[in-house]
């Protein structure tokens, strides 16, 4: 018997898009309070306490500047502190976000040299090394890219990218966009030799959008000091080393975001960052196992073929025809479950774009949420008569149970 007329969406909604992510109830509760004094008292101590805890998440001993901005703001901050009009940057790209950061550099008068490796492949390190080695005059001032590109769900190897710079003996700064990956996929800023890492608060850090962070080491700080002009608002000097409290934020503190962030950092550190990374890894593998099963007798595929190259925070998928969009609409309307649209994989509005979608699995997600996500998708495939292989939920639960072959 078909029950398609009965709507099953009432209940807790689940936003499974790759950012913003699910906000924990404890974070919402921490934010639900009257405005504090911004001139003295508890807020000042709370803000100071965030700094070492943020550094621990980025795995750096160095500096951090906080911006009242989304991830795009952190992109701009990193560029505004280190580059001048006429400077050159090298941008290896395998997804939309590297292009976005490069476009922002260009708008600041920086010449961005893109090395585009498409949407399914890792960086070609030999090609990157070649370009760096050819730059004998060291005109390239920075190499910048996305650690995880959220459009393709590829994860890039920044340790290897550092290796390219080192073997070419090239002094360019290495800048990583960790907006999708921080607090989800392992990232080791100092160990890997990343000079600048940027992130936002609304993905792995589980806070509503509105804060972003630029981590930078002494080498990057030195490059900032060679610049004659830096926009007063974006300047990281005062934000990372404030003489007065208001300098942390260049104005009024984002009080409630700070309350939320304090709570989310407490949660991450109570769990332990290693466990956080492993949890994301297991949940991602459960999703991949389910998609593999669906794909055996249907058309669903993951964008990234090699599991070693896949992010643990987001999965980009294809279900050709209009099925991707139909599935998303059915899940949102009938089950209260929202999946992400495809991004940068096909022309927006084209028939191909309807076949693309993404699952966000970053931050506040656990085993039963992922099983619910997968169970919802399985129901959608059945309701819409979309051909698919059986055994997806069994395969996913085996991964979560630690019993996968
Ligand atoms: C989400 C995201 C961005 C953009 O962040 P906003 O907060 O939307 O400005 C940039 N890069 C990556 C890799 C992202 O995942």
Briefly summarize what is shown:
The chain is of the alpha/beta class and 405 residues long. Helix content is 41%, strand content 16%.
Describe the structure in your own words.
With 405 residues, this protein is α/β, with parallel strands linked by helices. The chain is 41% helix and 16% strand. It is built from 14 helices and 14 strands. The chain has a 7-stranded mixed sheet, sandwiched between helices. Helix 2 (42-58) packs across helix 10. The longest helix is centred in the C-terminal third of the chain and has 24 residues, at 273-296. It is globular. The model has no long low-confidence stretch (mean pLDDT 97). The protein binds pyridoxal-5'-phosphate (PLP). Pyridoxal-5'-phosphate binds next to helix 3 and strand 6.
List keywords for this structure.
single chain; alpha/beta; about 400 residues; five-stranded mixed β-sheet; seven-stranded mixed β-sheet
Topology:
Elements: E1 14-16, H1 25-31, H2 42-58, E2 63-67, H3 71-82, E3 88-93, H4 96-107, E4 111-116, H5 125-134, E5 140-146, E6 148-149, E7 154-155, H6 158-167, E8 173-177, H7 189-192, E9 196-200, E10 212-216, H8 218-225, H9 236-240, H10 255-271, H11 273-296, E11 301-302, E12 314-318, H12 323-335, E13 337-341, E14 356-360, H13 367-383, H14 392-400
Helix pairs in contact: 1-10, 2-10, 5-6, 11-13, 11-14, 12-13, 13-14
């Amino acid at each position: 018997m078909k029950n398609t007329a009965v709507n099953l969406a009432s209940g807790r909604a689940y936003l499974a898009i790759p950012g913003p992510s699910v906000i924990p109830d404890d974070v919402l509760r921490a934010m639900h309070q009257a405005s504090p004094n911004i001139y003295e008292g508890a807020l000042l101590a709370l803000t100071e306490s965030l700094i070492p805890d943020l550094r621990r998440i980025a795995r750096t001993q160095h500096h951090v500047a906080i911006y009242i901005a989304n991830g795009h703001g952190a992109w701009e901050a990193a560029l505004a502190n280190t580059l001048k009009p006429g400077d050159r940057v090298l941008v290896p790209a395998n997804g939309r976000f590297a292009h976005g950061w490069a476009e922002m550099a260009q708008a600041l008068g920086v010449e961005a040299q893109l090395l585009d490796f498409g949407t399914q492949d890792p960086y070609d390190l030999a090609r990157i090394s070649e370009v760096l080695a050819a730059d004998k005059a060291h005109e390239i001032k920075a190499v910048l890219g996305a650690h995880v590109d959220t459009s393709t769900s590829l994860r890039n190897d920044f340790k290897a990218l550092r290796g390219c710079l080192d073997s070419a003996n090239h002094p360019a700064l290495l800048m990583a966009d960790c907006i999708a990956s921080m607090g989800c996929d392992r990232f080791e800023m100092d160990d890997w030799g990343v000079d600048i890492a940027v992130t936002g608060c609304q993905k792995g850090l589980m806070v509503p959008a509105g804060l972003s962070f630029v981590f930078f080491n002494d080498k990057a700080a030195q490059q900032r000091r060679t610049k004659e002009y830096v926009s007063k608002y974006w300047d990281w000097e005062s934000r990372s080393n404030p003489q007065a409290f208001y300098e942390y934020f260049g104005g009024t503190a984002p009080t409630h975001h700070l309350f939320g962030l304090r709570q989310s950092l407490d949660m991450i550190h109570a769990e332990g960052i290693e466990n956080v990374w492993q949890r994301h890894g297991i949940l991602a593998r459960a999703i991949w196992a389910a998609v593999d099963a669906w794909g055996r007798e249907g058309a669903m595929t993951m964008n990234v073929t090699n599991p070693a190259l896949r992010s643990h925070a987001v999965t980009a998928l294809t279900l050709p025809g209009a099925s991707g969009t139909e599935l998303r609409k059915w899940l949102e309307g009938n089950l209260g479950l929202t999946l992400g649209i495809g991004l940068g994989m096909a022309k927006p509005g084209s028939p191909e774009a309807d076949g693309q979608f993404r699952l966000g699995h970053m931050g506040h997600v656990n085993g039963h949420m992922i099983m619910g996500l997968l169970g919802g998708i399985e129901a959608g495939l059945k309701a819409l008569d979309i051909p698919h292989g059986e055994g997806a939920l069994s395969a996913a639960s085996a991964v979560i149970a630690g019993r996968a072959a």
